[in-house]
Amino acid sequence: MRAIHDKIEGPFAIEEDIALYGMVAGDATLHRGIRFILHGTIAGNFTIETGARAIIHGTVAGRIYNEGGRVEIFGIADAVVNGSRDAITIIDPAAHVRGRP
């Protein structure tokens, strides 16, 4: 898994396993079968495709759209929308999610 500490202009397509300590200035999409750990910030919305896995320790300023992946939220998000029956969303009790599923 590669670590990224930079600011990335969105929209950003995540196509490899990464840990982001920086920022995405805009929306991001996590592609099928990819693992992603967020310690930084996504300034827009974040979409997780089927079979992808995301662990959120940082902040998603917009909505998280889980289209059939697995999302674990320990940080902050505006809202979470599960768009598929296959979507697995786990929200830690200490996480701050304004619009809970």
What is the secondary structure topology, with strand pairs?
Layout: E1 2-4, E2 7-9, E3 12-14, E4 18-20, E5 23-25, E6 28-30, E7 35-38, E8 41-42, E9 46-48, E10 53-56, E11 59-66, E12 70-73, E13 76-82, E14 88-91, E15 96-99
Parallel strand pairs: 1-4, 2-5, 3-6, 4-7, 5-8, 6-9, 7-10, 8-11, 9-11, 10-12, 11-13, 12-14, 13-15
**Percent range for β-strand residues:** over 45%
Distance N terminus to C terminus?
A: 29 Å
Biggest sheet overview: 9 strands, parallel
Helix-and-strand structural type:
mainly beta
Shape: globular
Enumerate the spans where pLDDT stays under 50 for 5 or more consecutive residues. none
The total number of structural domains is: 1
Radius of gyration: 12 Å
- Give the integer mean of the pLDDT values: 95
SSE string? EEEEEEEEEEEEEEE
Helix run count: 0
Helix content: under 10%
Beta strands, count: 15
Organism: Sphingobium psychrophilum
Protein name: Polymer-forming cytoskeletal protein
